[in-house]
Amino acid sequence: MNQYIKEERYILGIDMGTTSIKVTIISSISFSVIEEHTDSSNMFIINNGIQSEQNVSKIIQNLNNCMSLISENILRKVIGIGICGQVHGLICWSSNDNPLIRKTLDNKHFFEVNPKKVSHHYTWQDNRCNKEFLSSLPKPDSHLTIHSGYGCCTLFWLSRNSPVTIESFNRAGTIADFVVSMLCDLDTVKMSTQSAASWGYYNTERNEWNINLLKNAKFPVHFLPEVTQPNVVAKNLKYSWHNIPIGVPVGVALGDLQCSVFAALDNDDHAVVNISTSAQLIFVLKNFSFTEAEKTVAKFVPYFDGKYLSETAALNGDELWKILIENGYKEENQSDLLFEPTFLGERHKPDQRGSIVNIHINNFKLFQIFRALCKGVVTNLHSMTSSETLNKKQIKKIIGIGSALLRNKILQMELEKQYSLPVEYKRSGDAPFGAALSMLQTLNFHKLEI
C-alpha cells in the first residue's frame, strides 16, 4: 500500500460521530496507530426522541480540542487527511456567507464556526418525519428505501414545514461533508456515493440523484451535492490547519460504517459482526444481486471499488449495551428464557417491541435474565442474516468488533455457537483508522507525494 511513500509520514483520520469526535494518526510505513484522541463533550441542542439537533459550532470545537492534543511535529508531517462520519445527517450553509471564523493561537491556525451562519446539524436519530409524512413523499427510484433522519427526508420536512429555517442557505451535506468543504474552501459540496445513497433518492446503479422525481415533488434540488466515488481527493487543504501544511490532500468524506469495515476486513470472504451501540452484521457483496426477502431485512450500501456492503442492523439502543458491558465478565449458566431485545423495533419492523417469554420460578434470577438477553441479541441478528445465508455468500470467517462484544464472553459464546464459523476478535475496527487507511490507499493509487 505504501509503494509511493518514500519515508515515514503520517495520515490523519477523522470520525465525525454522533456522540463523539475521534482523530487517529497512522504511520505511512507501518500503518500502525501513532496517536488517537476522542472528545465526547455534549453536542446536542435537543434530543427528545422526535427532534435530534446538534450545535455545529460545538461539534467543530470538539474537533479542535482533539486536534490540539496531537503532537505538533507529527502534524507537520501529515501528508493526507481522511474524514468519515454519520451518513444520514444534514447541515445547511451558504456559499455567499462564509460561516468560518479563522483564528490563530500559539502560531497554530484553526477555524471556528459562527452558529448564526449555519443550520443546526439534524442527526440520523431525528424522527420528525413520521409515517404519515413519509407516506406523502414520492417513492425513491433506488433499491434503498427512505427513513426519518435521512438527509433528503429532513430537507423535504423543512421545506414544507419550516422553510424560513433554510431560506438563507444554498449548500447542504453531512457534517463530514461540511468539514471537507471548510478545510478545502469548496464552492460546490462534494459527497461520496456512500453518503448520497444514505441520504435517500440516489440511484447507485446510474450514479445520479432522482432529480425529476424530486423536482416534481417541489424538493429544493439546489441543495443536492455533487456526487463522486469514494477514494478520491476532494481538494487540497486551503490554509494551514493545526500545523498541517497548506496543500495537503483531503479525501472526499466517507461513511463511518464503510470505514469501520475497511479497517477490520482482511478479505472479502470475511463478515464483520459489530456489537456496540447497535448490533450489525456486514459483509461485502461480490455482485450486486439480492432477493426481495433479503432486501426487507438488510441494506445494500456502496462500499469501495464499485462493491457493496450487505448490512443487517439490530436497533437495540445504548441502554442495553451499558448493561452488557457492565456485566460482560459474568459467565453464568444457560437459561431457557426467550428474550427478544427489540426495544426500538427494526428497520423492517419499526413497530416491533421487545418481549420475554417462557418465564417460570426457576429461570427469573438476574443472571439468567442477563444470559437470555445476550442470547437474544445474537438470535435477533441471526433471524435477519442466518448462518445459511453466510454460507451461500461463501463467507468463511467472522471478524468480531465493538466494545460490547469484545468485553462480553457470553456474547462471544453465543455468536460462535449460532453461526458455527471461525471468529476472530479485533480492536482495529475504528472508523477514523479506516478513514486514514483509505486515504493512504488513495494517495498511493493516484501516486500523490508531498
Number of separate domains: 2
**Straight-line distance between termini:** 16 Å
Q: What is the general shape?
A: globular
CATH architectural name of the largest domain: 2-Layer Sandwich
Q: CATH homologous superfamily name of the largest domain?
A: ATPase, nucleotide binding domain
Structural class: alpha+beta
Helical percentage: 25-40%
Draw up the topology in text.
Layout: E1 10-16, E2 21-27, E3 33-39, E4 44-47, E5 52-54, H1 56-68, H2 72-75, E6 78-85, E7 91-93, E8 100-105, E9 108-113, E10 121-122, H3 131-135, H4 151-161, E11 171-173, H5 175-184, E12 190-192, H6 193-199, E13 202-203, E14 208-209, H7 211-216, E15 226-228, E16 233-236, E17 249-251, E18 254-255, H8 256-264, E19 270-275, E20 279-285, H9 292-297, E21 299-302, E22 308-314, H10 318-327, E23 338-340, E24 355-357, H11 366-384, H12 387-392, E25 397-401, H13 403-406, H14 409-419, E26 423-425, H15 431-445
Parallel strand pairs: 1-6, 6-18, 12-15, 19-25, 25-26
Antiparallel strand pairs: 1-2, 2-3, 4-5, 5-10, 7-11, 8-9, 13-14, 16-17, 19-20, 20-22, 21-22, 23-24
Can you walk me through this structure?
- With 450 residues, the protein is of the alpha+beta class.
- The protein contains 15 helices and 26 strands.
- It has a six-stranded mixed β-sheet, with helices on both faces.
- The longest helix has 19 residues, at 366-384.
- Mean pLDDT is 87; it is low at 328-333 and 342-348.
Keywords, separated by commas or semicolons:
single chain, 450 residues, alpha+beta, Nucleotidyltransferase, domain 5, 2 domains, 6-stranded mixed beta sheet, 5-stranded mixed beta sheet, 15 helices, 26 strands, 30% helix, globular
